[in-house]
Amino acid sequence: MTERRPSTWRLAGRLAWYRPGLLLLSLVFFVAASSSMVLIGWLLQQIFTTLGGGAAAGFDGLGLIAVLAAVEVTRIAASWAGVLRTLYWERLRGLLRLNLLRAQLASGGPGAGSLPSSTGEAVSRFRDDVDDFLYLCEMTVFVAGELLFAVGAITIMLSIDPLMTIAVLLPLAAMVFTTRSVSNRIRDRRVAYRRASGAVAGLLGEMFGAVLAVKTAQAGGGILGRLAELNERRSRAGLRDQLATDLLDTFNRLTVDLSVGLVLLLAVPAMHSGRFTVGDLALFAGYAAALVAMPRYVGRLIAGHRRAGVAVDRMTALLPAGSPAALVTHRPLFDAEPPPAPYLRAPGPLRSLQVRGLTAVHPGSGRGVHDVDLTLTAGTLTVITGPAGAGKTTLLRALLGLLPGQAGELFWNGEPVADRAAFLVPPRSAYVPQVPRLFSEPLRDNLLLGSEDAAGLDGVVRSAVFDDDLAAMPDGLDTAVGTRGVRLSGGQVQRVAIARALVRRPDLLVLDDVSSAMDVHTERQLWDRLLTRSDRALLVVSNRPATIARADQVVRLDHGRAHPGRERLAA
Ligand SMILES: Nc1ncnc2c1ncn2[C@@H]1O[C@H](COP(=O)(O)OP(=O)(O)OP(=O)(O)O)[C@@H](O)[C@H]1O
After folding, report:
1. Whose CA is nearest to atom 25 of ligand 1?
2. Rounded to whole angstroms, how far apart are CA atoms 305 and 89?
3. Which of 376, 366, 418 lies closest to 396, judged by CA?
4. How far is CA 322 from the centre of its chain?
5. How confident is the model at residue 163 (pLDDT cuts 50, 70, 90)?
6. Alpha helices in 52-81 (DSSP H)
7. Helix (H, G, I), strand (E, B) or coil at 569
8. Mind telling me which residue stretches traverse the membrane in this protein (predicted)?
């Protein structure tokens, strides 16, 4: 049985309590603004009573007007306290996004298949669903202030004329009832709209990521057609979503007019009979004008609650291992301590790295690697080989902690490693994936990636067999590599990525099939230069005979199981 998720209200309450001080201050300002409205209505009544020759409560006409002006100024000042609210909401927004991001990082991110859909679609969840959920918190605090005003105003109105008060309130009650009954439809339309928006964002992201594939397959027309189709669906869904909210708003406005009309109708005979004064009418008109907005606010709150429920479900899908409560877990937005220095060298240079019983299975497919044992020694080359889909990449990523593994232990020089992802980083380890990505920045920045250690660049460029290429580039290290490195050949991108890894001077260099786009001569040079150091272990995925021939150890993977052995040639 699936666990029931905490209610949307509960989650919103937990989130709102993230900064209790700021929340209470916001509430104080809302209450100040709304109670000043009650005061303004009462002052209006007193002014009109005085003007009509009646006795007012202790002030003359001018005195009352001065008090009214003062209260109005206070009210305006209170509403300017919005700056404070912005501070508060930005913190809540930050916390939600931080929790989503942490969950994604912990589960291995998109590479581990932890997204429910495309990355573009996930970005829309980070942006729009976070805002939908925050809207509920914001609306709740706002409506709480308005409700306080309503209670004060209704109490005063009831003490003046109960019948007239009911005439004001009845249509408003009808509004709340109607809003409640259509709220399910509002939720469904919001779900449909978010889904349609996500599909457009997702396709756009994938289109940009696969521009070359689209061009070479001459599939531009087809893709654009699909985009137009999804866009059309989104605009229809958006229209329906907006229409539902707007119709409700219009109905609410009409009800408000009805309410004011009723008061006027009832006021005429009451004033004739003398039990209702001009001052009373001013008070009722003032309060009714403010009260009529109430049901609209309550309506928006109810609709907002529906939308927030959808947002919670969509955000929860980004928490592969977490419950919705993890969305609103309180934690500091900024780490108190600076992150540990990445270039810390401990606990001693690599002599050996042992992997015992490593098991990592992709939840989506049930495929992966099972019970793999491996020992890497400094100064040696270990090659992982095996057919497509055997689990080679999965093994590397699980070993480095980039995928959540189900079992397995790691020992660095015999010492157990508790947190692989945190431990196997430069300068202990560097990883070059199967399809390395470069930034649209000059070569130098791509190599350094923020490191200030530029002294050894010539050496690493040579080790990665990129020295001749670089010498042929008129701008040298200042060469712009184009968007994601498109101005370089596939083999050049691979070698730049290797050089980038070497800049970090890793003890363990992990390369996933990085010689696939190199000619035999370049590949041989690469191993010649990389294998000169006795203090570095190389772990390489490859099926190339030239690479396997250089290996000190070959591990053949088949259906996720390792078969160690010294193989000179790939099968
Ligand atoms: N994110 C994922 N979600 C679900 N299944 C996955 C995921 N990534 C890989 N797999 C599956 O796990 C198995 C191992 O994949 P892996 O990429 O490790 O194979 P490989 O040996 O590196 O293949 P290749 O030589 O083609 O790169 C495959 O069957 C693949 O379909």
Report:
1. 388
2. 17
3. 376
4. 15
5. confident
6. 61-79
7. coil
8. 21-44, 133-157, 163-182
- Other C-beta atoms closer than 10 Å to the C-beta of 242 total 12
- Its ipTM equals 0.95
Contact 403, 113 (CB under 8 A): no
> Which two tokens mark 518?
């190199």
Nearest-CA residue for atom 14 of ligand 1: 391
pLDDT tens across 248-267, in order?
778 777 777 777 778 778 88
Q: Which of 517, 480, 483, 482 is nearest to 498 (CA)?
A: 517
Asked if 515 contacts 523 with a C-beta cutoff of 8 angstroms, the reply is yes
User: Which residues, other chains included, contact 172 with Cβ-Cβ below 8 Å and sequence gap of 6+?
Assistant: 255, 256, 259, 291, 292, 294, 295
- Distance from residue 388's CA to the centre of ligand 1 (Å): 8
* Three-state SS sequence of 203-259: HHHHHHHCHHHHHHCCCHHHHHHHHHHHHHHHHHHHHHHHHHHHHHHHHHHHHHHHH
DSSP class of 304: H
Angle between helices 278-291 and 162-209 (to 10 degrees): 20
Token pair in block for residue 558: 């088949």
Q: Is 394 in the pocket of ligand 1 (CB under 6 A)?
A: yes
Q: What is the DSSP string of 315-341?
A: HHTT-TT--GGGGG----SS-SSPPPP
Query: Cα(369) to centroid of ligand 1, in Å?
Result: 9
Residue 449 CB contacts under 8 Å (≥ 6 apart), including other chains: 500, 503
For 109, left (φ over 0), alpha (ψ -120 to 50), or beta?
Answer: left
Percent of the chain with pLDDT over 70: 91
Mean pLDDT of the chain: 83
Q: How many CA atoms lie within 13 A of 429 on its CB side?
A: 25
Residue 551, φ and ψ in degrees, nearest 5: -75, 145
Q: Which domains does the chain have, with CATH numbers?
A: 8-328 (1.20.1560.10), 352-565 (3.40.50.300)
Q: Find out whether the beta carbon of 110 lies less than 6 Å from any atom of ligand 1.
A: no
Here the tokens at position 409 are 């232990």
Q: How many residues does the chain have?
A: 571
End-to-end CA gap in the chain:
47
Cα-based distances in Å from 212 to 48, 216, 332, 516, 517: 76, 6, 42, 19, 17
Tell me, what amino acid is at 68?
A: L
Give residue-wise pLDDT tens across range 318-345: 887 668 888 999 999 887 776 655 444 5
Pairing state between β 368-377 and 381-385: unpaired
Phi, psi of 55 (to 5 degrees): -95, 125
**What are the φ and ψ backbone dihedral angles of 507, each rounded to 5 degrees?**
-75, -30
pLDDT (0 to 100) of residue 483: 66
For the Cβ of 261 lying below 6 angstroms from any atom of ligand 1, the answer is no
Give residue for tokens 């780490």: 335
The pLDDT, as a whole number, for residue 495 is 92
Identity at 94, one-letter amino acid code:
G
Task: Give the mutation target among 107, 117, 362, 369 for probing the ligand 1 site: most ligand atoms within 8 A of CB.
Answer: 362
